[in-house]
Amino acid sequence: MILIVLVTLTKIPPFWLVIVALATVQIIFGANYVVSKSILGHFPPLVWAVIRMILAAVIMGTILVMTRLKKHPSDGMKYFGPLAIYSIFGIILNQSFFLMGLKRTTATNSAIINVLTPVFTMLLVTISGKEAKSASSLRRNFGFLIALSGVLAVRKIEDFKFSDATFLGDVLTILNCLCFAIFLTTSKKFMEAHDRLWTTFYLFVFAVFGIGLMSINEWSGFVMPEMTTPLLWSMVFAVIGATIMTYFLNVWTLAHANPTHVALGMYIQPIVAAILASIVFDEKISFRTTVASGMIFIGLFLVIIGPSGANKK
Q: Which letter, b or e, does each residue of 51-60 get, where b requires 16 or more Cβ atoms within 10 Å of its Cβ?
């Protein structure tokens, strides 16, 4: 939360603060894989998704109203119209396709397919010309390929299994990647022009209604689980950390970094997941994971440094 206050008060952020924000998002998301696994043992996926959004909206809205940190947007439909569309792609369809896809495919397939988000993002910004071409493009593309190779190595691409049983889940997971890539590549100018706190709050509000409609069938048979201490702490982390902090920081970094860089930050997640697995589940970090992690960091470094750095618009 300290980081949210810091970035909120910084009008022209230094390069290092943008990198810290990007890294923080991916570290939290990486930890959320472990946390969400325990939560989804008690809640249906879409039921938990809408509960998570309701709690996040209530907490963030309360903070905004009570502290009066930022003036409420007054642009009417010029503000709420585009924001509803960004919420559809950035949260509603993204979250729903991911959860429904994960239910219908293997965890390995889902993890491997999700590396397509930065690929789709780079393709979309290249086609649309949203990121200027420069002499550093060759270095950036080379770095991107190195990072992608590292992620596929960590995710064990050789374990990917295409079958009729997983086909629908695989397609839904691909759509999840495409939706988030569309959100990243289309919303940058909007995020630059509007307050990020109120924007994040209304992204949650729209998501509550959208995911709520999609979760109606799951609610019909839902029974509230026993609220044990570990489950409550997991829910607190998922709402405060993996929802409020991550979505706000994603929105904030979009205003100060290239969409490709924001998407590429996702490649840090498997490293975080591997480290957490070694701590929580006592799994040893293999030589393969170590080498692949090095490739990811080298690739990201080559992409981010230089004229196309994260502080360029």
A: bbbbbbbebb
- Is 64:139 a contact under the CB 8 Å cutoff? no
Give the start-to-end residue ranges of the domains of the chain.
Answer: 14-308
pLDDT, tens only, 104-152: 877 667 777 877 888 888 888 878 776 655 546 777 777 878 888 887 7
- Please classify residue 268 by burial: count the beta carbons closer than 10 Å to its beta carbon, then call 0-12 exposed, 13-18 middle and 19+ buried: buried
Confirm if 80 and 202 have CB atoms less than 8 A apart. yes
pLDDT in tens, 232-259: 999 999 999 988 998 899 888 888 888 8
Amino acid at 139: R
Is-above-0.70 flag for pTM? yes
A 10 A CB-CB count for 179 gives 23
Which residue carries 């585009």 as its tokens? Answer: 82
Q: CB within 8 A of 310, min separation 6: which ones?
A: 15, 18, 19, 22, 253, 256, 257, 258, 261, 304
Query: What is the spatial distance between Cα 236 and Cα 56, in angstroms, rounded to a whole number?
Result: 10
Distance CA(255)–CA(258), nearest Å, equals 8
Q: Is 224 helix (H, G, I), strand (E, B) or coil?
A: coil
Give mean pLDDT, residues 28-52.
Answer: 83
